[in-house]
Design goal:
Layout (H helix, E strand, L loop, with lengths): L3 E3 L2 E4 L4 E6 L2 H6 L2 E7 L6 E7 L4 E3 L7 E6 L4 E6 L8 E8 L14 E2 L3 E6 L1
Parallel strand pairs: 2-11
Antiparallel strand pairs: 1-3, 3-8, 4-5, 4-9, 5-6, 7-8, 9-10, 9-11
């Protein structure tokens, strides 16, 4: 299913952004896991937050307390609210999802559906 991200942009350190990931109602209701990943230039793609359909959310240590992943079931959307942004948060942010039941492991191999990404740039 198609995942469409939006909300990226350029901000100064300490600023905030909210990313959105929208999909179809059918896909959204059938996804067991949804999550956000990011990839900085020259680095591997890493998990930022993963969430199962029961609301259990796991965050990467590097963003705990600053980022929040939350759903809007009426809009088939998963948000990523990012506060207190740092230059090291710069990268392409991807929404990912998977229908398979089981632990939503923070690994790219756990997720089968991916969006095209939205760029986040944080300047110092």
């Amino acid at each position: 299913a198609q995942l469409v991200e939006s909300g990226g942009g350029s901000v100064e350190a300490g600023g905030s952004l909210t990313l959105s990931c929208v999909t179809s109602k059918f896909a959204y209701n059938n996804y067991y896991c949804m999550g956000w990943f990011r990839q900085a230039p020259g680095k591997e793609r890493e998990a930022v937050a993963t969430r199962n359909q029961y609301g259990v959310t796991v965050y990467a240590d590097s963003i705990k307390g600053r980022f929040t992943a939350s759903p809007d079931n009426a809009k088939n959307t998963l948000y990523l609210q990012m506060n207190s942004l740092k230059p090291e948060d710069t990268g392409m942010y991807y929404c990912a999802a998977d229908r398979r039941a089981g632990a939503c492991v923070m690994s790219t191999t756990r997720f089968g559906d991916w969006g095209q990404g939205t760029q986040v740039t944080v300047s110092s």
